[in-house]
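Appendix C reproduces, verbatim, an entry submitted by the partner laboratory led by Prof. M.T., so that reviewers can inspect both the input and the predicted structure.
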Amino acid sequence: MDVGRDPRTIGITSTIPVEVVFAAGLAPVDLNNLFMTHGRRRSLVAAAEAAGFPLNFCAWIKGIYGACKHYSIQRVIGVVQGDCSNTHLLFEILEEEGVEVVPFEYPPGRDASRLKASIERLASTLGTDLASAEASRLQMQPLREKLETLDSMTWREGRVTGRENHLWLVNSSDMRGDRYRYETELDLFLAEAAGRPANHAPLRLGFLGIPPIVDDIYEALEQRGAQVVFNEFQRQFSMPGAHRCIVEQYLTYTYPYRTALRLADIKEETAKRKIDGHVHYVQSFCYRQLQHRAVKKAAGVPVLALEFDRPGRLDGRSITRIEAFIELLEARRLRAVKRGQEGS
């Protein structure tokens, strides 16, 4: 899809009920993904700073702005409740510069009636209705089930790497603007991955927090004998599980609501996937850093927090911390094996 020229293009700043967008005959483009797939990501951040964004401001917001301007996106759905508060300023700036911002909100307290009303308003604004969005959701359910298969092939079978899992699931926020093409490409990938030998690393890791702004975290972990078998938010973007309706589907989505819902999901998946430890990615100048204490307490396994600001690659200090964390997990695993031998 030619993002800048396609009149169907509508940007999104966070995961929203994408079924509404497809029902309206539009092509959703996640500006986060557009930023991360740009060949010169730092230039998009620099463009935002040249436009007046401060240096000590979230690089994701600056990257979203830079991508929006670079690709001439003229219409954006902005999450005004249930996402970062910095996006409010972003929307004001975009509107001042002639971009149409369509608001969407996830209600506090996960109120079903308010969420339904919010989805209905979005549908009306885009020229469709709730019934059409629900029909779109049902059409997309087989695709979402295939994404669950991909996730299972990651943590159960070891045939899909943590990075591959990340890339496919993070793109489920917008289906790359074309859900039919995305599903066809996914079918091909699943068929190829099914023919791979199983690969189970000694250490099983979870990746918590927002998707990383740096390139090589997954490779750094895998090169040191660890395997990422759980990508927390990326999995949430894919809307796993069975749901009775579109409202229920977006009520169970953990990202926009209180931390308790997120922590329950982390605890459940940590036990189910037999995870040895978690890497918790936190973005500089992001309010979600405050959630680390609760995440660390609830996870039940060691958690390493890694903080980054701008796009790029891991620095030496972060690599050293990763190596020390993996050594810690290896020592814990060996102690557990020894205790098991002594008890038998």
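DSSP finds 15 helices and eight strands in the chain. Additional entries are available on request from the coordinating office.
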